[in-house]
Specification:
Elements: H1 2-14, E1 19-23, E2 26-32, E3 38-45, E4 49-57, H2 64-74, E5 81-85, E6 91-98, H3 104-129, H4 131-143
Antiparallel strand pairs: 1-2, 2-3, 3-4, 4-6, 5-6
Helix pairs in contact: 2-3
Length: about 160
């Protein structure tokens, strides 16, 4: 397991990612996306696999069916991470790599898949699940002279 620890720490360092140890064989890091600017990722090294968990967004306020449709369609992609709900209904990404298959390439692919899934899906999820909030924010931005939030768009 020590070699797996070393691989994870070295992989995070090589990618220039901040890492905080949050328990024995557990690390938090932040990926930077274009749409979802910060993507928190928990890495949990278990006896048989490395698991990643990342928060995409809180439980949607509205548009639940559309949000879940978006996420389920994205789950069809053959990536090592998939969307799920946590116990509070928050939208998360989860993935695993068996330790027998864990190497530099699979570690990089796991983090890359988490980044891709979160970043490519974030705006759609916000528009579907938080449309009313975005409408209020857009009106506030217009009122105070700020440019519109590119994620929000007025509902027709």
């Amino acid at each position: 397991m020590s070699s797996h620890r070393d691989l994870i720490v070295a992989g995070l360092e090589a990618a220039g990612l901040p890492a905080e140890t949050v328990g024995e064989d557990r690390w938090m890091t932040l990926l930077e996306g274009e749409h979802k600017r910060t993507i928190p990722v928990l890495l949990d090294l278990g006896e048989r696999s490395l698991t990643v968990t990342s928060l995409l967004a809180a439980a949607p306020d509205e548009g639940h069916a559309e949000v879940y449709r978006i996420l389920l369609q994205r789950n069809q992609r053959p990536l090592p991470v998939h969307f799920a709900l946590d116990d509070e209904g928050d939208l998360i990404l989860v993935g695993q790599v068996p330790l027998a298959a864990l190497d530099e390439a699979s570690f990089d692919a796991l983090l890359g898949a988490a980044l891709t899934q979160a970043d490519e899906t974030f705006d759609q999820v916000l528009r579907a699940g938080f449309a009313s909030y975005l409408d209020v924010e857009q009106r506030w931005r217009a009122k105070v002279g700020l440019p519109p939030n590119p994620v929000g768009r007025p509902r027709g």
